[in-house]
Design goal:
A hairpin with a 2-residue loop joins strand 1 (about 55-60) and strand 2. This protein has twelve helices and eleven strands. The two termini are about 40 Å apart. The chain is α/β, with parallel strands linked by helices. One of its GO terms (molecular function) is transcription cis-regulatory region binding. Pfam families: HTH_1, LysR_substrate.
Length: about 300
């Protein structure tokens, strides 16, 4: 296969884009701090080596030809890729990680993360993000074994510190026709042991069965809240579910919230932990800052 040599340069494509974006050669020259003649020459050379006309002059304005429109669109992909490649080299030279792992306790409403993740995407070019749902001791394992870079947990293991990030709530719910919903509210705790409970599987290698809401005589285990909601909605058992999962169905009347003696809901705090401590990489630190709302530091780092 013959070795291919590019006829055009990235600089020529950037100049071509600037002429269009700035509405002409004069403004593009100001923006790029180059002479107008050098821009004219670059675009003329680009058209010559490609053998196609990209621009035509109408009145005093240079406008795109039909071919130019196609080439402009594709050239933006090219210059963006080049920029990302250079950013990746800079990131890796600075010690940026090729991948960041984020472990999220399943009770955490991750929709609140979207603005932070959107900003993270803007400056983390080349660094992949892996997001894992974790439950109970599975979350703690990631902290103790340092197998994730950033962890949001409902519980801090001994010897670790975390920043409070949010609170969580778990409501006790069942189908409106379920026997528990027919009882006078609030119901006694020992009533629950007479019925099937839907629980979420602990994601740990060696789960601690005495943790949290796993105490139940009869139980079915599922791997995610969505599956638990499906079973509850169909009338099979009761479950502790966070409002971000259950609220819409409660408003529709598809499931009902139960009142329990001495406890209308389960509550707790969520913390963000960097399990690797001082060994946490700069990319993971920037993600943590964004999650905590420290946007200024992240933007400065992205610009540097």
């Amino acid at each position: 296969m013959a070795h291919y040599r590019a006829k055009s340069t990235l600089e020529q494509w950037r100049i071509f884009q600037a002429v269009i974006d700035c509405g002409g050669y004069a403004h593009a020259a100001d923006k790029l701090n180059k002479s107008q003649s050098s821009l004219n020459h670059a675009v003329a050379k680009l058209q010559q080596v490609l053998g196609v006309q990209l621009l035509e002059v109408k009145g005093r304005k240079a406008v795109l030809t039909a071919v130019g429109e196609v080439m402009l669109r594709r050239s933006r992909q090219l210059t963006q890729t080049a920029q990302e490649l250079e950013q990746l080299a800079h990131n890796l030279e600075q010690g940026w990680e090729p991948e960041v792992k984020l472990a999220l306790e399943m009770v955490f409403d991750r929709s609140t993360l979207i603005p932070a993740l959107r900003k993270f995407q803007d400056f983390s070019r080349g660094s992949r993000l892996s997001i894992e749902d974790t439950v109970l001791t599975g979350t703690l394992e990631h902290i103790r074994e340092k197998s994730a870079d950033v962890v949001i947990t409902h519980h801090l293991p001994k010897g670790y510190i975390g920043e409070p990030i949010d609170d969580y709530v778990m409501d006790l719910v069942c189908h409106p026709d379920h026997p528990l919903a027919q009882l006078e509210q609030p119901i006694a705790q020992d009533e629950l042991s007479q019925h099937l409970q839907i629980v979420i599987r602990d994601t740990a290698e060696h789960p601690q069965e005495d943790e949290g809401w796993l105490k139940a005589e009869q139980r079915w285990t599922v791997s995610h809240f969505d599956e638990a909601l499906r079973l509850v909605r169909s009338g099979l058992g009761f479950c502790w579910l966070p409002p971000y999962i259950a609220e819409r169905e409660m408003k529709k009347g598809a499931i009902r919230k139960l009142q329990l003696e001495g406890s209308s809901c389960r509550k707790g705090s969520l913390y963000m932990v960097l399990p690797k401590g001082e060994q946490t990489g700069p990319c993971a630190r920037q993600l943590a800052d964004l999650i905590m709302g420290k946007e200024i530091e992240a933007q400065k780092a992205a610009a540097s």
